[in-house]
Every structure is written in C-alpha cells, then in structure tokens.
Amino acid sequence: xxxxxxxxxxxxxxxxxxxxxxxxxxxxxxxxxxxxxxxxxxxxxxxxxxxxxxxxxxxxxxxxxxxxxxxxxxxxxxxxxxxxxxxxxxxxxxxxxxxxxxxxxxxxxxxxxxxxxxxxxxxxxxxxxxxxxxxxxxxxxxxxxxxxxxxxxxxxxxxxxxxxxxxxxxxxxxxxxxxxxxxxxxxxxxxxxxxxxxxxxxxxxxxxxxxxxxxxxxxxxxxxxxxx
Length: 228
Description:
Strand content: 15-25%
Oligomer: single chain
Shape: rod-shaped
Mean pLDDT: 78
Helix content: 40-55%
CATH architecture of the domain at 47-184: 2-Layer Sandwich
Number of strands: 6
Order of helices and strands: HHEEEEEEHHH
Largest sheet: 6 strands, antiparallel
Structural class: alpha+beta
Distance between the termini: 47 Å
CATH topology of the domain at 47-184: Beta-Lactamase
CATH superfamily of the domain at 47-184: PAS domain
C-alpha cells in the first residue's frame, strides 16, 4: 500500500527566505543607486573644477593683454611689439605651475594666429585641418566668453573662448583648451574604489540580514516570546 507523501515544507523557513530575498534586493538597489550618485557627483565636481580653472585662467590672460592695450592704445594690436609681447607672455605662462595641461591660442581680429603655447590641441579655426564635430555642453560665462566641449573622437577637449575688447573695439580673441582625459583620468580609479567599498558593505549587509532573520526565528526566541 502506497502511503501519501507528507508535506515536509517548513512555513517558517519559507518566510525566512522571502525576508532575506526582499531585504537583499532592497540593499542591493540602495547601494547601486549610491554608487551611481557618487560617480555622477564626482564627475560633475571634476567638470566644475575644470570650468572654474579655465574661467580663472581666461580672466588672468585677458587682464595681462588688456594691460598692454591700455598702455599702447588699440591700434597697436597688429604691431610687431604686440606680437612679441603676446609670444613672450605665452612662453612665460607655459612655465607657470598649473593643475591642468592647457593649450593657448591668441588670434587677431582677422582670426590670424598671433601666438600659441603648444600644438597639443589644434585650435586654429583657419587651418584646413580644423574639421571638428559640433560642440556640446556649452556654457555662456558672459557675452564675450563661452565654454564648450569639442567631442573629438578619443581626444575630446574643453575650451574657453574669450573676445578682447578695448573701449568697445574688438581687438582679437583667444582660446584656452584642456584635454578632458587629463581631467577624468582619475575617474576610473574612483569608480573602482567606490564600487569595491559599496560591494563590501552590501555583502556585510546581506550577512547581517541573514543573521538577524535567523535570530528572529530562532526556537529559543520564539519560546521566550510565548512565555512573555
């Protein structure tokens, strides 16, 4: 005679598994969101720091050039001594300690290059090699100044463009650029470290959840609750 099999399932164990699974999914989602928020915050912080640096440097360059204009009058912009002044300033600036490596191009009002600090980034808009994608992430600092990202494949850069005005007369303009890879180079390390820390915390949370659920359903605890 065949006896019917008994249902050996344990309702309490089923509840434990559901609780562990629910809390595990909750904490996994929580730490995943924390990881994403941390990465976005750090990246935005790097972007803001770069924009602040470019704006500060542009103001410094503009101030130095305007000092010359104030002393020599606007019509001196095309003179050889102005070209020498700009090139000397660019050479001196290249020796200044800076948190980011940059490229500076100074143009006259006809868009001709007067001087450049280096050729790491081609900023000459009149060059036939200047074939670039449309800029993105543009930010207008003031009517004469804007910051934007040029998404060149593999070598995107952030550039600030400022026009030089003297008593309402346009004298020229300059562009100061920095490769974004030099700025975001540490982002990969930050992501790896943050993800590792949050993964460890997530695993510890899962162990704590299993321990707390097991403790809550322990027979001795249930007996104590009945006695109370």
